[in-house]
């Protein structure tokens, strides 16, 4: 038998988390041990993730590393496997986790073992969501994530944490239970809960619309799409820094992953029919939330609203129904995971020093923290989508692809990029530049070694993805091609992008064109 | 399976051996009573443990011949279905007996009658789930109910306990009357009270009188499982009765009455499923909504758990409304997990005492529990998330199986209402977790006083935690087998 690497990746953090809860000793000793155990575990997970990627056959759209243990029959069974889309998202999760642990190293002071255990539990469940190939196992993992996140926000969150934790929990739960019923229907009709099989199963067209809507209820909330996004700013603002990183970095991707894994391949007819709904909501979302972001006085809230706008790019791309748009969506997801995570870390860095997220309290930070200002600048630019950063690649591909589906949608969505530049630059000017008005800012130290350890890997990957995105796109190419073929069969508007490579345009920046 | 007519000539000894569990309980209860009478209150602890031994013996007597068998001229049936429920009843009764010891001692209510009355109630419940005839059903139900009335008023010096007992008695007697009236109508229009003889008579066009009888019977049974609109007694009785007694009411009798209702509906009135389906579906929806909404404003933990039990019964009824083997199996599975969650939650309540040693019933008393008693808080969180039905905790799976049964029976509206109310319900369960974990402690909470309670609590918590998932396969299969045994008539 092969080494069950996926099971190990899920069970290792669980075991470590349980261990943390049972640590003996006094408060301070436990806290320090818990930090090191958590960091060690997440680093081992990262190494396992790299091993996973190296052993992955990127040319194939088939699910790999498959494991089947009929452990929980007759309810569900333990079936794991990944394709390229799962692979890149698992990689994102294991990459962000050690950084989250480092980010909470000093800022979390109370109940440290419990905090670290909750994060390890989150990691296990996130990997489980992306690796599950059994419908109900996916659901268990998907919903299970609510409990640790509820506790993280509620126990270690800010002022208004209780309201935010309730809102987060109940909003996402309501979305998900409808999806659960849809899953039950699918299993009772198709007679199998195996996701790869269901991905090629043809449901009746009338049923597809209902099923699609039920899944939409769940994924739209998770994503989040306008108008069900209101839990996000609350949850983001109230969560501790690392909680925000995980929320923005990985949890939001579950919505996008859900669309691409379930809605598109399983209900292609309904997806084509309801494209207008997604485009409409996404267009509103981009413009509205960007404008709202412009008016925020709280740094975390601003980034939270920008997340909603970026996620709208993802949905537009997903429902552009062609290779470029779908690949672009996945890149936007990855890039947003890194960039918004990094921006939350940047906010965390200054928050740890000044204990306020009010933009007005800062100003002139670049004078006292020049190195910090460089990183903050890089991530702000990546969020805007400056060429050379990861943000550009994804957004460009999305618009290129979606342009074939709807020029109007792309026209509106494009304004989002301009607005993003406006709010990010405005934020950066107010925080980093200008003269120091707040005397407390004067005393702020520049980055510590620990903060470098968080930000440098992020910066490297953001630039890497911006300059050579193919490494990140290669694994998803084959599965996306399968989905596009299924959507074409369902009557998606045929569009073959005939992009003639102009002089100076390389296949690096326009991967779809090279096919 | 032997035929019904064959049982009429059956020798008494054979009947008695088929009904061995009940025989053990009846003799055991009488023995305990005699010991108690001669030795007095000081035998309370010994009798309680003696009762556990008797439950174990009664449980062991369930082993052996697995096939269905009638006894006492077709009044009584022993099959996998009744065996499954009896295991639940005995486990719950045993747990309620021993975990009550510290509480009753402190309240100076440590009378030797307590384990005896619980055992008589268990005997009644055991009869209920094995009844194959309306008369046996009624006798079992009354035995259980009479024992329960006494238990509700067990703190006889306390006005609230006496009030609970009286309320329970008056309403319970009314419900029994309604049930008996229904039985008499059914008998009058069909000429029999036996489930097996009734079943084939149900396929024809039913007469109005029969429908009336059916409705009365269902109303009487709905009272016993406290389904809306016959739930009014539940919060008052749970709050007024001593906490261990409330724990008992919320656990074993619910499982027994649910088992009884399912047997009556599926076995005796299986042919009239179209008629009773609406009653059950309405009761399910109304219980889910009222249970979820009613709990929100409660400040007493016991009242909260009372509404929670109403809510849970609503979910379990969805499985019956599906009226398929999968649905019946889902109900059984639901009750098994429900018992663990309920007993666990009540045990947490039993463990809550302020520095003066008084029990805490105000929900605000839970504030900061995770700081003062981390283990207890973790158990409470497991039970609450489990009751809310959040995976990967065990409480998700019974809900999952009833909804799956409903979807397979194409009852989509019922399923959608069910999942939406489960979200409403999640709100008040979350509130308990919030108090225990997010709020600062307001007062000291004394440590667990009894290792036995601690152990039972830990077992229940581990069962409801994700570790319990390893057991869902065996329990689910046992429930499937039980459902098929009952439906093979």
Automatic annotation (TrEMBL), chain A:
Q: Which InterPro entries match?
A: NADH4_N, NADH_Q_OxRdtase_chainM/4, NADH_UbQ_OxRdtase, ND/Mrp_TM
Species assigned in the record: Pacificimonas flava
Please provide, in alphabetical order, the Gene Ontology terms of the cellular component aspect for this entry: endomembrane system; membrane
Any GO BP annotation = ATP synthesis coupled electron transport
Which superkingdom is the protein from?
A: Bacteria
Q: Where in the cell is it found?
A: Endomembrane system; Membrane
Q: Does the keyword Transmembrane apply?
A: yes
Regarding the membrane, this protein is recorded as: Multi-pass membrane protein
Q: Where are the transmembrane segments?
A: 6-24, 36-56, 76-103, 115-132, 138-156, 168-189, 209-229, 241-262, 274-295, 302-322, 328-351, 372-393, 405-428, 449-467
Query: What's the protein name?
Result: NADH-quinone oxidoreductase subunit M
């Amino acid at each position: 038998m092969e080494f069950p690497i996926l099971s190990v990746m899920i069970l290792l953090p669980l075991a470590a988390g349980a261990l943390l809860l049972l640590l003996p000793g006094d408060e301070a000793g436990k806290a320090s041990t818990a930090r090191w155990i958590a960091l060690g575990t997440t680093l081992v997970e990262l190494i396992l993730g790299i091993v996973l990627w190296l052993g992955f056959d990127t040319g194939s759209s088939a699910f790999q590393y498959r494991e089947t243990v009929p452990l929980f029959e007759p309810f569900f069974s333990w079936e794991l496997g990944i394709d390229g889309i799962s692979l890149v998202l698992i990689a994102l999760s294991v990459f962000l986790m050690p950084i989250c642990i480092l980010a909470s190293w000093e800022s979390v002071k109370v109940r440290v073992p419990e905090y670290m255990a909750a994060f390890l539990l989150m990691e296990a469940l996130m990997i489980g969501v992306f690796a599950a190939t059994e419908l109900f196992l996916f659901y268990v993992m998907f919903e299970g994530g609510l409990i640790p996140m509820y506790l993280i926000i509620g126990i270690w969150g800010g002022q208004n944490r209780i309201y935010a934790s309730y809102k987060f929990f109940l909003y996402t739960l309501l979305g998900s239970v409808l999806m659960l019923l849809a899953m039950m229907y699918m299993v009772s009709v198709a007679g199998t809960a195996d996701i790869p099989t269901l991905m090629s199963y043809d449901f009746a067209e009338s049923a597809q619309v209902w099923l699609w809507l039920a899944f939409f209820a769940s994924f739209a909330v998770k994503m989040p799409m306008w108008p069900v996004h209101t839990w996000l700013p609350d949850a983001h603002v109230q969560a501790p820094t690392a909680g925000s990183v995980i929320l923005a970095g990985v949890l939001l991707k579950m919505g996008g992953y859900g669309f691409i894994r379930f809605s598109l391949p399983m209900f292609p007819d309904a997806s084509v029919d309801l494209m207008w709904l997604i485009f409409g909501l996404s267009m509103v979302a981009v413009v509205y939330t960007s404008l709202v972001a412009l008016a925020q006085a709280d740094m975390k809230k601003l980034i939270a609203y920008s997340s909603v706008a970026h996620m709208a790019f993802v949905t537009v791309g997903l429902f552009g129904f062609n290779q470029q748009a779908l690949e672009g969506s996945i890149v936007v997801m990855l890039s947003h995971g890194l960039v918004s995570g990094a921006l939350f870390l940047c906010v965390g860095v200054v928050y740890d020093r000044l204990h306020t997220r009010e933009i007005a309290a800062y100003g002139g930070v670049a004078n006292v923290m020049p190195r910090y200002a460089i990183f903050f600048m890089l991530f702000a630019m990546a969020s805007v989508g400056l060429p050379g950063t990861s943000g550009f690649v994804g957004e460009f591909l999305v618009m290129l692809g979606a342009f074939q589906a709807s020029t109007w949608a792309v026209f509106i969505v494009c304004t989002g990029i301009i607005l993003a530049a406006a709010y990010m630059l405005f934020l950066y000017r107010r925080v980093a530049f200008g003269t120091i008005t707040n005397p407390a800012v004067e005393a702020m130290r520049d980055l510590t070694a620990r903060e470098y350890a968080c930000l440098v890997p992020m910066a490297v990957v953001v630039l890497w993805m911006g300059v050579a995105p193919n490494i990140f796109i290669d694994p998803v190419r084959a599965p996306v091609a399968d989905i596009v073929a299924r959507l074409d069969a369902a009557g998606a508007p045929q569009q073959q992008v005939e992009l003639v490579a102009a002089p100076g345009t390389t296949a690096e920046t326009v991967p779809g064109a090279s096919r | 399976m032997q035929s019904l007519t064959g049982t009429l000539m059956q020798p008494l000894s054979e009947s008695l051996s088929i009904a061995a569990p009940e025989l053990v309980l009846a003799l055991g209860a009488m023995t305990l009573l005699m010991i108690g009478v001669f030795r007095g209150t000081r035998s309370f602890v010994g009798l309680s443990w003696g009762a556990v031994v008797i439950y174990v013996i009664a449980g062991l007597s369930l082993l052996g011949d697995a096939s269905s068998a009638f006894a006492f001229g077709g009044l009584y049936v022993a099959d996998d279905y009744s065996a499954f429920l009896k295991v639940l009843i005995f486990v719950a009764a045993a747990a309620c007996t021993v975990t009550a010891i510290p509480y009753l001692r402190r309240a100076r209510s440590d009378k030797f009658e307590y384990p005896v009355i619980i055992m008589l109630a268990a005997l009644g419940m055991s009869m209920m789930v094995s009844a194959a005839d309306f008369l046996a059903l009624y006798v079992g139900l009354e035995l259980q109910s009479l024992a329960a009335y006494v238990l509700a008023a067990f703190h006889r010096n306390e006005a609230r306990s006496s009030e609970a007992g009286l309320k329970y008695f008056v309403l319970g007697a009314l419900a029994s009357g309604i049930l008996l009236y229904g039985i008499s109508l059914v008998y009058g229009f069909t000429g029999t009270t036996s489930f097996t003889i009734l079943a084939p008579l149900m396929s024809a066009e039913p007469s109005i009188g029969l429908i009336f009888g059916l409705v009365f019977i269902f109303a009487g049974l709905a009272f016993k499982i406290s389904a809306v609109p016959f739930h009014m007694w539940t919060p008052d009785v749970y709050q007024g009765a001593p906490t261990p007694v409330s724990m008992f009411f919320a656990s074993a009798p619910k499982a027994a009455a649910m088992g009884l209702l399912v047997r009556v509906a599926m076995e005796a009135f299986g042919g009239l499923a179209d008629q009773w389906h609406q009653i059950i579906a309405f009761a399910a929806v109304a219980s889910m909504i009222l249970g979820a909404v009613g709990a929100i404003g409660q400040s007493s933990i016991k009242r909260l758990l009372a509404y929670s039990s109403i809510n849970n019964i609503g979910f379990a009824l969805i499985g019956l409304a599906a009226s398929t083997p999968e649905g019946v199996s889902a109900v059984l599975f639901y009750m098994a997990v429900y018992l663990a969650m309920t007993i666990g939650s009540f045990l947490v309540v039993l463990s809550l005492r302020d520095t003066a040693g008084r029990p805490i019933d105000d929900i605000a008393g839970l504030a900061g529990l995770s700081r003062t008693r981390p283990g207890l808080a973790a158990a409470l969180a497991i039970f609450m998330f489990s009751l809310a039905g959040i995976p990967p905790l065990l409480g998700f799976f019974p809900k999952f199986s009833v909804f799956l049964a409903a979807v397979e029976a194409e009852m989509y509206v019922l399923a959608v209402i069910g999942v939406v109310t489960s979200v409403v319900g999640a709100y008040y369960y979350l509130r308990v977790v919030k108090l225990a974990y997010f709020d600062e402690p307001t007062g000291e909470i004394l440590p667990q006083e009894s290792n036995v309670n601690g152990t039972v609590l830990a077992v229940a918590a581990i069962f409801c935690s994700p570790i319990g998932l390893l057991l869902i396969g065996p329990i689910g299969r046992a429930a499937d087998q039980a459902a098929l045994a009952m439906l093979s008539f």
